[in-house]
Each structure stands twice: as C-alpha cells, then as structure tokens.
Amino acid sequence: MNSVRVVVLSDNCASARAARGEHGLSYFIEIAGRRALFDVGQGLVLAENAQALGVDLDAVEAIALSHGHYDHTGGLPIALAAARGPVAVHLHPDALQPKYNGTRAIGMPPAARAALAGPNVRLVESRAPGEVVPGLFRTGEIPRPRPEESLAEIFHLDPDGRAVDPLLDDQSLYFDTPEGVVVLLGCAHAGVIHILERVRALTNRRPLRAVLGGLHLGHANEARLRWVIERLREFHPSLLVPMHCTGPRAAAALWTAFSETCRPGGAGAVFEF
C-alpha cells in the first residue's frame, strides 16, 4: 500500500519557517495518487502556505468540510479558483445554515457560499458516511449518546440567541493503514470520543493509529478533561496531534497524559502514514 501524506496548510500556529498561522484549519491529503483538502481555513494563508510547502492546489479534486464555521470554510474561493478541474465539495446540509457566536456571524462567509455555485463544483450534501476520494472517508453525522460529551460551548443559529445550533454538521475524515486507522478532526464539536466510536463502528473495529486536529476542549471543565483522557487511552493511539481549537489547558493535559505519543502540529507540519 502506498503511503498517505497529510500536510497541515492552516492552523492557529505555524510549525515551519516557511508557513504562517491563522485561526483556522486545513489539511492537504495525498492518498493513492488522489488529492483532497479537508477544510480550507479562513483563506488568509491557504495559497501562500501551499506555495511555500510545495502543495499543488490545482491538483485538488475533492474538498470535505468538517462543519460550516468561517475558519474552516473561508478559503473555498481560493481553493476552488486554483483547481484546474471539477471539484466535489462534501458537506453536511447544516453547514450552510447561518451560525452565530453571540451576535457575531461565524458561519460560511458570503464569498464562500458564492464559490459553491461555481461551474467546476459538484456539491455533495449528505448526513451519511461516504467516500471523498478512493480510500479517504467521511464519518457523516455523528451519533452522540454520551452526556459527558454534550456541547461545552453554545452557539446559535440566529443573532438573538433564540435557536441553539446543535452543530450536527460536525464530521471528520479517516483512512486506513496497515497499522490502523488515522482520524482527521475538524473541531470535534460532536465530541472526540463520539467520533472515535463512530469510526470504530464504520471500520469494523479496526485499531486506531492516529488522531490529528482540533478537539474543542477549551471550555471543558476538569471532570470532562479527565473523562476524555481516560476514554482516549482505551483507543491506544500511537500518534496524537492536538491542534486548532483544542485549547492550551487541554493540550497541556493531553501532552502530559500521552507524552510518548503526542506530537506538534501547526501549519507546515507533514505526516506520512
């Protein structure tokens, strides 16, 4: 089996001198000769980082969106304009809803919405699991049976705060390797344990090799942090890369608990599986 290459194009910090950070997240994934993006950041550094890191955005044939927030979707106009061929854009239907943090709009920017109507775009709206490119899969909507992973930070669908956004659009990507499954998280609004349980069910309980991305634990209390760490230990990941919205306190706790397996992420980080 050929190796899978994952390049972090956007993250809150940079890990390579050639790259710049932004509040956002984006991965470039090369698998079996196919190229895809998982999220596109805000778009402030996407093109610049791709060029600096030797990533050819014009070869991208699919984009998967983890959810509809601006820091994961804002780079759509740049990514779609760069692509030389048709691009399948995979997203949950709720990713297109208005989204607010207080009175501040944090949903997909108008320019990103307009880019989805472009002539080279094939929109794949689905709540179900599916294949993004051969060998790279999306989880679809995540079942959430555990009260321990209820939303710690509340967002809304309107600026008046009348309708809570349950963030059902949150989804992750995964691919298999001989050593186990690699899971790429966006923000893990659904809860990282819920996501890993979903992936385990979708892969017939394949072992977990790696987890990369945002764990959205910045608002988690100590009890929740301890619970997540204990449940995560049960999956025995050999690589853990907390990024983006994990939060400094939670990231420190994860690095302490998984000192042998944690590795830094950041824009410019490259992982080979």
- Supply the helix-strand structural class: alpha/beta
- From the alpha-carbon coordinates, what is the Rg to the nearest angstrom? 17 Å
Rounded to the nearest angstrom, the distance between the terminal CA atoms is 10 Å
Strand content: 25-35%
Annotated CATH architecture: 4-Layer Sandwich
| Low-confidence regions | none
Count the E strands.
17
Order of helices and strands: EEEHEHHEEEHEEEEEEEHEHEHE
Structure notes:
The structure is a single chain. This protein has a single domain (5-272), classed as Ribonuclease Z/Hydroxyacylglutathione hydrolase-like (Metallo-beta-lactamase, Chain A, 4-Layer Sandwich). Helices cover 21% and strands 26% of the residues. The chain is built from seven helices and 17 strands. It has a seven-stranded mixed sheet. A six-stranded mixed sheet has the order 9-10-13-14-15-16. The protein is globular. The protein starts with a strand and ends with a strand.
Topology record:
Blueprint (H helix, E strand, L loop, with lengths): L4 E6 L15 E6 L2 E5 L7 H7 L9 E3 L5 H4 L2 H7 L4 E5 L8 E2 L2 E2 L4 H6 L5 E5 L4 E4 L2 E3 L16 E2 L7 E2 L7 E5 L2 E5 L7 H11 L5 E7 L7 H12 L5 E5 L4 H10 L12 E3 L1
Parallel strand pairs: 3-4, 4-5, 5-8, 14-15, 15-16
Antiparallel strand pairs: 1-2, 1-17, 2-3, 6-7, 9-10, 10-13, 11-12, 13-14
